[in-house]
Structures are given as structure tokens and as C-alpha cells.
């Protein structure tokens, strides 16, 4: 690569045709993504709709500049979590592109409320970009490194460790037009990261460009050692580079043992090894007993092990730390329902749906219990309360014909045949093969109900 770049003529300019070709290639690469996003969402969303939430995470007051934690949710946030926060701020429902735009506004609002703190954060992120240490996204790199000697070696060859040699390479070939393009890419791409957050995943595209400059720098240092020319300059550049990249300017310990044990426990839990997962969660608790979602996942592991008492204690502790945890509310409902306490289970399921309307498990569980509650009320003759439970179930189980069939039964019991027929037709629109609704509609039509 360096041999090819050194043959380029310093100061040579690219023709307009080449520039237009590059621009056209860029558009062609992105065009399928832009069209696909438009067809899926009905709005213009170049590349993705996560720019807004990442901007907010990287600039919210209290941000550390490298973590991908969404305030109020943690590192394991989902699209539904982001949508809920954006819609709460907007005061209404938003499309995917609207969610992103709302987070852009929220991020700008955070910056305007503390501009001095934001400038300090930008300086910190600048230091993190060139830092010699690698920073995991929402997964600890130390966990993977423990299992791979090759990865431990590769982690030593980071963007930061190559930067001192890149400075020497730039000093050697600063007039080379090809290298100027490389430097321009580094500055533009690296500068764009400052507006979000910095970790190894996002600064990885800089590695090839920095490696090109570092290769030139290694050649420059070897030539200087051999000829003794410009040796002092190269050594000074190396020393200055190490002084920039080695100190922990970010002030953070990116190797989080609690996170490492937590992630290991999650991996074991996913493959059904609940006992081994609990050992990892206990190890995480010894480091940080209130690590985000630690009690939630430990409760799931205890539940998988059959110990509902310990599971319940873990879920309740999670709710003490995070009262908006929909999954903890839902899991408590599961435990209480298994004990036959449908009233309290119903309350937990409904709170889970309120905390996160997109949590499918909570909606299904709440709908099921509401149907049971409505059936009991219906059998006792309390039609108005039964209908209230059925309507709630219909709101939660939008594609399920059962609540509508139950509402039809209640309406028929009151002699309101027109309403009953309307509910039955709605049920059959959801599932044309739902036999109870079809049979009831036939009986009504034949006057035999």
C-alpha cells in the first residue's frame, strides 16, 4: 500500500468525473437501504432510525462518553423501550422515524441545558477515540479475551497503540496526496463519533486508515534507526503519541467484572444451565449487588430451578431498584398465578402492560387472566363486570377472537342480539375458522340460541 501511495504525485488533483463517480457509488450503495426503509415505515430513513437514540445516549447529562446505556433502562434496552421513552416525551404515538427525530430533539435539549458540561464531555470522547484501551459496547471484551489467547494478543494492537506510529508516518509523507485522503477520512469519521459515543465497535472503521499511516511510520522509524537521520524527530513523535494514548484520560475502568459475570450468566441461562447461571449471578453480586437487571435474571434462573420463593424475592428486589421493570412485574404475575392467586397476578400483569405495552408475554398473560376473571363473573351473573374484563382482554389480545366471543355471550345474555352479532363478526374477521363464534352466529341466525 505504501509503495503505491508514494508513487502518487504530490499536489495532484482529482478530476470532477472521479468525484462524481465516487458520489454516485455512495448513493447506489445506500439506495437499497433507503428504499427498503421507506417501504417498511412510509417515511424517509437513510441507513437506520437509531441515530436519534444514539445521539441522545451520547449527549444526555451524566453520560460517560462510551456506554450505550439508555437512561432509565440500562444497557440491555430494546426498540420498544426507546419508543416508550420518546412517546412519553412527545405525549403521543410516534412512527419509527418520529422516534428518532424526538431523540434528536431530546439530545439537543440536554446539550442546551448544560453546554459547559457538554464541552467537557466532548473533550473526554476525543480522548477516548485515540485511547490505547479497547472499550466494549454492551458486552465486556474481557469475557471473550479470557477464552481466547489470540484475542488477548489482538487487543494489544489497538487503534491507540498504532497512533504514535501513525504520527511518524504522517510526518514522513505529509505531502502525499493519497495519504491526505486517509487523514481526511480519519478526521471526518472520528469527528462524527464525538456526537454519539465511543467504543471499539464504532471506532473500528478507523483501524485500516490508521494502519496505513502506522505502516509508513514504522518504515520511517526503521529508516531513521538505520541512517540516524531524523531519529530525534521520530522518537519525539512516538513519545508524544504514547503520552496521548496511554493515560486513562476517560477516567473509566472499562473492564467491569460485574458485567462480565452477568453476561456469562445470561449465556448459560439461554442454553438451559440455570444452576451454572446462578453461580455467575452470585459472582456479579459480590462485585455489584445492584447491577442493572441482575436480580431480574437471577429470579428467572431461580424460577427455572423450581425455587419460586427465591425467584419472587429477586423480582421484588428488582422492582425496588427499577419500579418500571415490566419483566419483573410480569414474572411476579407468573409466580402468583401458579399459586392460584389470580387477583394479585392480574394486578402485576396489568402493571407490566402499563410499564411496557409492547411486552408480548405480559399482554398474553394479562389477557388470559382477564378472560378467567370475566368467566367467573359471568357465571356468577355479574354481566357488567364480566364485560369490563372481556373488553380489557380484547384490547390486549388484539388478534385473539376469544374476548370478542365472550362479549357476544354477555350481550346475548342481556338479549342484545344486534351487539352480539357485531362481536361475533369481529371475532370471525380475526379468525374465520374460530368455531365457537361461527356456531353461535349460526344458532342466532336460525333462532336457536
In short:
With 449 residues, the protein is mainly α. Helices cover 71% and strands 0% of the residues.
Describe this structure in words.
- There is one protein chain.
- By secondary structure, this protein is mainly α.
- It has helices at 2-6, 16-41, 51-59, 79-90, 96-113, 115-130, 141-146, 149-154, 159-172, 177-193, 200-203, 206-227, 231-245, 257-270, 274-287, 294-304, 308-321, 326-338, 342-355, 360-379, 383-396, 402-413, 417-430, 435-445.
- The longest helix has 26 residues, at 16-41.
- Residues 1-12 have low confidence and may be disordered.
Number of strands: 0
Looking at the structure, what is the overall shape? elongated
Q: Tell me what portion of residues adopts beta-strand conformation.
A: under 5%
Structural class: mainly alpha
Over the alpha carbons, how many angstroms does the gyration radius reach?
30 Å
What letter string, H or E per element, gives the SSE order?
HHHHHHHHHHHHHHHHHHHHHHHH
Helix content: over 70%
Low confidence ranges = 1-12
Biggest sheet statistics: none
Count of separate DSSP helical elements = 24
Salient structural properties:
mainly alpha; 449 residues; single chain
Topology:
Elements: H1 2-6, H2 16-41, H3 51-59, H4 79-90, H5 96-113, H6 115-130, H7 141-146, H8 149-154, H9 159-172, H10 177-193, H11 200-203, H12 206-227, H13 231-245, H14 257-270, H15 274-287, H16 294-304, H17 308-321, H18 326-338, H19 342-355, H20 360-379, H21 383-396, H22 402-413, H23 417-430, H24 435-445
